[in-house]
Design goal:
By secondary structure, the protein is of the alpha/beta class. It contains 16 helices and 27 strands. The chain is globular.
C-alpha cells in the first residue's frame, strides 16, 4: 500500500475507469429534471466558510431551493427516484448488482441511474454519476455534478474496487471540469479561482493529510472569445529572464512563459526518439545506439536515412515505396525536437546533419541514476542520493555530457533524470530504482548542485528536471532554484492534463513541457487500435497548446514531447534473446482506452510484422494527426 496514494494523485481515477475513445457529439439520453440553473449559485442557498484553508466547509441553508437548482443526480436532489426511466430500469432489473459494475459499462444511461440512485450521498457516488453524464454527452450537467463535489465533498476519498489504491475525489473532479470546459468552449462555461491542494499527499497515510479548498466559481463566457488570444504579449511587460544565452526563457507580468532560441519564440514539438531494431534488447546488451546501424553495409546509416513507408501495410517494400529516412519523416511531421538519452556513442556528426538539414533540435537527457545509470549503484539497492561517491560519479558523467555537446548547434536543453522521483518500492515495469522519493530533500539538493554546475559549464542552454507528474515540486521550490524548467511525464487520460498547469504555477513556477505523454495503439482483446491512440494524442496536444503563453490556459506550457516514435519490441520480451514477437499482453493498469498499458505499442510508427526492421515504417493515424496539427500551428 505504500504506492497507492501517490499513484492516485497522478492517474488513479483514470486507472480505475476504462475510458472510451468515442467523442459524443450529442447527448445519448435526456434527463427528466435538468434543474433550474445552468450554473448553480451556491451562495444563494448556503454559506461558505474558511475558503482557502483545510477547514473549508459549505453549509446548506435552503436545501429545497438548492435541490431545484441542481437537478437530478446532483446532491442534494433526489428526484432521480421519480424519473420514469429510472423506474422502468428498476422494474426490468437493469440496475441490480454492485455499482462498480456500472463504471466501465457502455450503457451510460444505465450507469447514470445506478450511481445516482444508490443510497449514499457522498463524493464517490457523485463522481461516477458525473462520469456517466460526461460519457453520455450531457456535458453541462456533468460539470454541475463535478462542481457539486468541489463544493460539498472536496476532501472525500475513494478506494478502488479491489482496495489496492485510494484517491482524492475533489482534485479528480476539478481535473474533469478543467478538461471539459477547455475541450468544449461551445458550452461557454469556465472555472475561476478554484484550488484544491493535498498537503502530505505523497505518502500512504491519509491521517496526516491536509486538504486546502477554495471552490472558486463557475461562470459564463462568450465562446467566440476563445478564438482570439487572451493577451497581447507584445504589450505585456517582461517580469524575468532565465538565462541569457542562445536558449533562454522569459516570463511576462501575467506569469506566462516562453522559450526563446536565438531570440525567436520556440514551441517544442517533440518526439522521444529511441528507434530499436526488432530482435535486439538492452536486456542482453545487444541494443546499440541507433546512430551505429548499417545492416546492409552500404555506408549509409539505416535508421536516419534509409527507412521507407509501407503504404499498403503488407510488410514488403514495393517498387513505389521510396526510401525516405526517419529524419525526413520527422521533418514532414513538423517535429522540431527529439529527446535522446546521453551515452558516449552519440555521433555528433549525425545530430549536426539532423539539425542543419532537417531543422530538428536535441533535448538531451542524463539519467542521473535512474535505472542506476551513472551512479554505480547495484540494481538491488538502487541509486542513493545520500551517497557522496554515487553523487560524484553522476556529476562526472553529467560534466562529460556537457563538455561533449554544449557547443553544438543542435542542442536545445539538458534534462536531468527520467522519473527518478518514482517511489523506490514501486516494482512495476517502469521502476527507476532510485531513493529520490524516499529522500526528496537530498534529491532536490543534488539536482540544484548539478544544475548550478551545468550553468557554469554552459550558460547557453537551460536545465530541466525530468519528473514523474507533479510530485516533489515543493522540494524543488525550496531546494532547487537552479532548475529552469519542468519536463513532466504524465499519462492522465484521453482528456488532457487537467490541473497540472495550475499545480505547477502554485508550487514551483517554471515553464512546463510534457517530456512524455502518449498512448499505446493496442486495445486489450480487440487488437491494434489507431483511432483511440489518435484521439488520445489529439486531446492531449490541444491541452498543451491551449496552455501556451498568451492563450486562455495558465500560459506556462512551452510544448511537449510525444512518447514515442517507434514501437519497441523488446520491452516485454521475457526471453532476453532474439526470439522476439510483438507482445500483445498488457503489463499494468494505465489511463488508456482499454485501461491497460501495452508497452510495445506506443509508437506513432509501427514496424509492421518485424520482418523488414529496422527499415520499414507504417505510419499510424497519430503520425498524420501531428503532421496536420504541427505544420498548421
Amino acid at each position: 500500500m505504500k504506492f497507492t496514494k501517490t499513484l492516485s494523485a497522478i492517474t488513479a481515477v483514470s486507472i480505475l475507469l476504462i475510458y472510451t475513445s468515442t467523442l459524443t457529439s450529442s447527448p445519448l439520453f435526456r434527463l427528466c429534471n435538468e434543474g433550474t440553473e445552468d450554473i448553480v449559485d451556491y451562495a444563494k442557498y448556503g454559506e461558505f466558510t474558511d475558503m482557502g484553508t483545510p477547514e473549508y466547509h459549505y453549509r446548506i441553508i435552503n436545501p429545497d431551493k438548492l435541490s431545484n437548482a441542481s437537478g437530478e443526480g446532483i446532491y442534494p436532489n433526489k428526484t432521480v427516484l421519480n424519473d420514469p426511466d429510472y423506474k422502468r430500469l428498476t422494474k426490468d432489473k437493469k440496475l441490480e448488482g454492485s455499482p462498480w459494475d456500472y463504471v466501465a459499462g457502455p450503457d451510460y444511461k444505465v450507469n447514470f441511474y445506478k450511481w445516482a440512485s444508490i443510497p449514499v450521498d457522498d463524493g464517490t457516488k457523485l463522481f461516477f454519476t458525473a462520469l456517466a453524464l460526461k460519457e453520455a454527452g450531457l456535458y453541462r450537467h456533468a460539470i454541475k455534478a463535478y462542481y457539486a463535489i468541489i463544493v460539498h465533498f472536496p476532501k472525500d476519498t475513494c478506494w478502488s474496487k479491489d482496495g489496492s489504491f485510494v484517491w482524492y475525489i475533489g482534485p479528480a473532479a476539478m481535473n474533469e471540469i478543467i478538461n471539459l470546459t477547455r475541450s468544449h468552449p461551445e458550452l461557454g462555461i469556465e472555472l475561476l479561482d478554484a484550488k484544491i491542494a493535498v498537503i502530505n499527499g505523497d505518502d500512504a497515510d491519509l491521517g496526516n493529510d491536509q486538504v486546502i479548498v477554495n471552490p472558486g466559481k463557475l461562470q459564463h463566457f462568450s465562446p467566440e472569445s476563445r478564438n482570439i488570444p487572451k493577451y497581447d504579449l507584445n504589450m505585456t511587460a517582461i517580469k524575468q529572464h532565465r538565462g541569457s544565452g542562445k536558449v533562454r526563457f522569459i516570463q511576462y507580468s501575467n506569469l506566462a512563459w516562453q522559450l526563446l532560441v536565438d531570440d525567436k519564440i520556440f514551441f517544442i514539438r517533440g518526439v522521444t526518439y529511441t528507434p530499436s531494431p526488432v530482435g535486439l534488447s538492452p536486456k542482453n546488451t545487444s541494443l546499440n545506439n541507433w546512430m551505429t546501424y548499417d545492416s546492409d553495409k552500404n555506408g549509409i546509416l539505416d535508421i536516419p536515412y534509409e527507412t521507407w513507408i509501407d503504404l499498403n501495410k503488407n510488410s514488403k517494400k514495393d517498387a513505389s515505396e521510396e526510401v525516405i529516412g526517419d529524419f525526413q519523416l520527422l521533418k514532414n511531421m513538423g517535429c522540431n525536437t527529439i529527446r535522446i538519452f546521453y551515452d558516449e556513442t552519440i555521433d555528433k556528426k549525425i545530430l549536426r546533419d539532423m539539425h542543419d538539414n532537417y531543422g530538428i533540435h536535441v533535448a538531451m537527457c542524463n539519467f542521473i541514476g535512474a535505472y542506476t545509470v551513472g551512479s554505480g549503484a547495484s540494481w538491488e539497492k538502487g541509486t542513493d542520493y545520500t551517497d557522496p561517491s554515487q553523487k560524484q560519479r553522476m556529476k562526472e558523467n553529467v560534466t562529460k555530457m556537457i563538455n561533449e555537446h554544449k557547443n553544438e548547434s543542435y542542442m536545445l536543453m539538458w534534462i536531468l533524470g527520467n522519473e527518478n522521483n518514482l517511489p523506490a518500492d514501486y516494482t512495476g515495469i517502469n521502476a527507476t530504482r532510485t531513493n529520490a522519493a524516499k529522500y526528496p530533500e537530498e534529491y532536490a539538493i543534488f539536482l540544484n548542485d548539478t544544475a548550478k554546475m551545468i550553468h557554469e559549464l554552459d550558460p547557453n542552454h537551460p536545465v530541466a528536471v525530468g519528473n514523474l507528474e507533479t510530485k516533489h515540486l515543493d522540494y524543488y521550490a525550496k531546494y532547487a532554484p537552479e532548475i529552469d524548467a519542468l519536463g513532466i511525464n504524465s499519462y492522465r487520460g484521453k482528456d488532457g492534463f487537467g490541473r497540472l498547469w495550475q499545480e505547477v504555477r502554485d508550487t514551483f513556477d517554471r515553464p512546463i513541457f510534457l517530456k512524455e505523454f502518449g498512448c499505446d495503439a493496442y486495445y486489450e482483446n480487440k487488437g491494434e487500435d489507431e483511432d483511440s491512440q489518435a484521439i488520445y494524442h489529439k486531446n492531449c496536444w490541444e491541452d498543451i497548446y491551449y496552455n501556451r503563453a498568451g492563450w486562455w490556459g495558465e500560459g506556462n506550457s512551452i510544448g511537449g514531447i510525444v512518447f514515442e516514435w517507434l514501437d519497441e519490441w523488446w520491452k516485454d520480451n521475457q526471453a532476453g534473446d532474439s526470439s522476439f514477437k510483438h507482445q500483445t499482453a498488457s503489463q499494468c493498469d494505465m489511463a488508456f482506452p482499454d485501461g491497460r498499458s501495452h508497452e510495445e505499442w506506443f509508437g506513432v510508427c509501427s514496424q509492421g510484422n518485424g520482418s523488414k526492421s529496422p527499415f520499414l515504417r507504417q505510419l499510424r493515424k497519430t503520425y498524420y494527426l501531428y503532421k496536420k496539427m504541427w505544420n498548421n500551428a
